[in-house]
Amino acid sequence: MTREMTGAKMVIQALKDQGVDTIFGYPGGAALPIYDEIFQQNDIRHILVRHEQGAVHAAEGYARSTGKVGVCLVTSGPGATNTVTGLTDALLDSIPLLVISCQVPTFLIGSDAFQEADTVGITRPCTKHNWLVKDTDKLSSTIHEAMHVARSGRPGPVLVDIPKDVQFASGTYEAPKPSTSHYKPRLKGDLEEITELVAAIEKAKRPVFYTGGGVVNSGPAASQLLRELVDATGFPVTSTLMGLGSYPASGKNWLGMLGMHGLYEANMAMHGCDLLINVGARFDDRITGRIDAFSPKSKKAHIDIDPSSINKVIKADIPIVGDVAHVLEDILKIWKSRGRKTEVEAVSKWNKQIDEWRAVRCLTYRQSETSIKPQYALQRLEALTKDRDRYITTEVGQHQMWAAQFLGFEQPNRWMTSGGLGTMGYGLPASIGVQIAHPESLVINVAGEASWLMNMQEMGTAVQFRLPVKQFILNNERLGMVRQWQELLHGERYSQSWSEALPDFVKLAEAFGAKGILCKDPKDLDDAIMEMLDYDGPVIFDCLVEKHENCFPMIPSGKAHNEMLLGDADTQGVIDSKGSVLV
Amino acid sequence: MNALQIKKGATKHSAYNLRPAFSEIEERHTLAVLVENEPGVLARVIGLFSGRGYNIESLTVAEVDHTGHRSRITIVTKGTPQVIEQIKAQLGRIVVVHEVHDLTVEGPSVERELAMLKVVGQGDKRVEAMRMAEIFRANVVDTTLDSFIFEITGAPEKIDAFADLMRPLGLAEIARTGVAALRRGL
Ligand SMILES: Cc1cc2nc3c(=O)[nH]c(=O)nc-3n(C[C@H](O)[C@H](O)[C@H](O)COP(=O)(O)OP(=O)(O)OC[C@H]3O[C@@H](n4cnc5c(N)ncnc54)[C@H](O)[C@@H]3O)c2cc1C
Ligand SMILES: Cc1ncc(C[n+]2csc(CCOP(=O)(O)OP(=O)(O)O)c2C)c(N)n1
Questions:
Q1: What are the domain boundaries of chain B?
Q2: A94, A395, A506, B59: most buried by Cβ count inside 10 Å?
Q3: Torsion of the alpha carbons at A561, A563, A565 and A570, rounded to the nearest 10
Q4: Are residues A394 and A303 in the same domain?
Q5: Partner-chain contact A307 B11, CB within 8 Å
């Protein structure tokens, strides 16, 4: 189907034809023609944010919780530059996004025109790909191709920059057709390598599955197949921060998260295993710790759709390039056809060893009668919400790690957090995007007060669109994660890690037209949480917690997995000077 | 390299380059990258090298298929085998990159570079420059009473050698194209 229409109309038509129902955006001069088209239709809902960074994080929350591409629309210059942090965040966390940025007219490009910025230049390193469209006839096919690139292979953010004259001009609209793009990442894994992995599975005595965000990226089928494979083999399974929920936290083979703030049993299993099966994870430095001491005795298999992830950090003995769901399906098929063999006795001995590590109960903390421990707050939040249809987003810091440790996820796409970039200010807008996608569900942003302030303007968005997002702020009046590092690394010199002059969050909530709840006594906590849950609207929950609590376990920088710090030990000087240059 | 050998304050080190499992020996590789000739494609390739800290020894680019809008970028780079593997994988990720060939491992290839050298001098030096140029099969493409411009084609080492000889004879300026390379045979 081809039709004549203006570029602005084409944008809306192309998005509709791509199945887009929601755009997060903010208008401005260069975007007016497209905004005029938005005004004249009802198929696509526009969510007006308060800052373009908020639009991108909201789109990330929308995308991660639905598996669809999140879409943003921003104006030229400052509108476009405000998306840079969000784009980088989405690039590092493999979140599919389309940002449509508007540009000064083509004949003014290069003249330092009002609100001109070299948007494709600025965003080239923080997008999977980007385009400047100078010809209205190419606009629709570019948007279709952009959506294809965003969601195919390793998903990621793309940007299409559209000058204002291209929006005004008429051209020929082309409907999406089966992609003619040469960009077709390989989905099926190499059968020889897969068979080698099956043989390794049959022989392994101390195996472990190390799963990651790639399982979530691959879609619900991948999680299903992972569960089947884990349950059939009886192998223990851990996950990165990004993969939580792919295997249910209630599953009996679940080890909990691994890595810097991961669980003792997960990290010890990684250290002691003889077969490490990486399923859609990227050997991030939060996971590996000291590389020459990382999982020293294991054969390593690595399943990843992006060839550049393989051998980037850790050498793979069995590299498998392909999509998680496709590869797991083939593994299961071949393993079953060869008689479903495992070293049953050795694996059960291994599981017993793991039970001993579990018995260390590494998440134990010192309870208090008088102050709310952040861990306790999350335990209560978990107890009171785990049976609900629940989505969690987080900000960045200690609270994020405690949330990963103390909340259990039974399904993928239920946990939205900024892992790779660690963007403070992600959680509130992300919770808005999630709530837009799941209007009936309970959406909670577990926040630190400092992070939360970074994009707090988005409370206005929540109130305007009647989004009952719950902002659960663990308020320690500190940049807690920074303070913890200063305590451990910099002789307790707490340089600039205080949250001074904090607002009264209850009054702030009221000023926005939301509800505010303050809680500081552990005895009141359950009632206060229930009050938050029962309120049919956005809530800011100011939970005053212990100010100097540290997040454990912790593998100090430059240390190996089996050199983890547990609990409230004397932690002074534990990171030696050699480790302190690592971040 | 061992993680624990990092000196305090040596901030250029990070967790990322502690790779004891990989070989530390650097190799020189010539890569041929076929790309769509669209605006920004060279910036993508160069940005990848600078952003990730890879070396570029030489880079040449030109459209080689005008109807299909394909350009061929020839890159000479240096790195450990693992870094070379990463470079190829990272190049392969760029959406407008169609093919990446490592000519150094894909069998014998021919490398050529073109250079122009301006040599300024009179008398014996001028005669000597001319004699050397003949030995190197360099052509004279411009001459004045006290200068030559030589054009020479060959492997980069040959051009280096020629330039070294011209230096005492009055080498004033040199322009080099960078390496173009093709695999031999079919
Ligand atoms: C303060 C802080 C502390 C942190 N501490 C920890 C910690 O203790 N533990 C921890 O785990 N993380 C931690 N993180 C997060 C960490 O920085 C990384 O973001 C995270 O570990 C990366 O997860 P991942 O390996 O699953 O990779 P992701 O970033 O999710 O990447 C996914 C991988 O899967 C591949 N992939 C994508 N789609 C597919 C597909 N369809 N099929 C196959 N492969 C696919 C991609 O190519 C990529 O290699 C922390 C972050 C912060 C901010
Ligand atoms: C945008 C941004 N700036 C700085 C940092 C560095 N940083 C990481 S955690 C943290 C403190 C977060 O404090 P808060 O949100 O209160 O959470 P807490 O650690 O106290 O739970 C800082 C400053 C970051 N991750 N992101």
A1: 23-102, 109-183
A2: A395
A3: -170
A4: no
A5: no
Query: Is the pLDDT score of A50 beyond 80?
Result: yes
- Both A353 and A425 in a single domain? no
CATH of the domain at A137: 3.40.50.970
AA letter at A11: V
Sheet holding A97-103, edge to edge: A45-48, A22-26, A70-74, A97-103, A157-163, A129-132
- CA A209 vs CA A275, A351, B21, B113, B167: distances in Å: 8, 13, 22, 51, 62
The per-residue pLDDT for B14 is 38
Does the beta carbon of B50 lie under 8 angstroms from any beta carbon of chain A? no
Domain boundary pick from A174, A202, A234 = A174
CB contacts of A578 in chain B (<8 Å) are 3-8
**Minimum-distance ligand to the CA of A313?**
1
| Measured distance CA(A327)–CA(A304) in Å, rounded | 9
What pLDDT shows up at residue B6? 28
Q: Say whether the peptide bond before residue A503 is cis (omega within 30 degrees of 0).
A: no
> What's the CATH number of domain B109-183, 3.30.70.1150, 2.40.110.10, 2.60.120.40, 3.50.50.60?
3.30.70.1150
Asked if residue A152 has its Cβ within 6 Å of ligand 1, the reply is no
Q: Total domain count for chain A?
A: 3
Q: How many CB pairs under 8 A join A and B?
A: 89
pLDDT averaged over every residue in chain A: 96
Separate counts of helices (H) and strands (E) for chain A: 23, 20
Model confidence band, residue A5 (pLDDT cutoffs 50, 70, 90) = very high
Domain B23-102 CATH superfamily: ACT domain (3.30.70.260)
* Residues A146 and A75 both lie in one domain: yes
Question: Are both B23-102 and B109-183 of the same fold?
Answer: yes
Structural domain boundaries, residue A411: 374-544
The pLDDT tens digits for B52-72 are: 999 999 999 999 999 999 999
A114 is annotated as an active-site residue: yes
CB B96 within 8 A of CB B35: yes
The CA–CA distances, whole Å, from B68 to A78, A135, A140, A576, B147 equal: 37, 19, 21, 58, 43
Look at residue A319 and tell me if it is in a domain.
yes
Under 8 Å between Cβ of A164 and A33: yes
Q: Is A256 a pocket residue for ligand 2 (Cβ < 6 Å)?
A: no
Q: For residue A249, give the CATH number of its domain.
A: 3.40.50.1220
A581: nearest CB among B8, B85, B98: B8
Which residues of chain A lie closer than 8 angstroms to B20, CB-CB?
291-292
Residue given tokens 């409907």 in the structure block? A175
- Using a CB–CB cutoff of 8 Å, tell me whether B43 touches chain A: yes
* pLDDT value of position A528: 98
Whether B15 contacts A285, CB under 8 Å: yes
Rounded-to-integer distance, Cα A6 and Cα A139, Å: 10
pLDDT band at B17 (very low <50, low <70, confident <90, very high): very low
Same domain, A224 and A336: yes
pLDDT bin (cut points 50, 70, 90) of residue A154 is: very high
Q: Which ligand is nearest to the CA of A480?
A: 2
**Same domain as A433, residue A307:** no
The neighbour count for residue A252, using CB atoms within 10 Å, is 10
- DSSP string of A25-64, one letter each residue: EE--GGGHHHHHHHHT-SSSEEEE-SSHHHHHHHHHHHHH
Query: Could you tell me if A505 and A387 lie in one domain?
Result: yes
Average pLDDT, integer, range A397-418: 98
Is the pLDDT score of A197 beyond 60?
yes
Q: Are residues A261 and A301 in the same domain?
A: yes
- For residue B6, the chain A residue with the least C-alpha distance is A578
Residue with token string 């920004």:
B40
The confidence score (pLDDT) of residue A574 equals 52
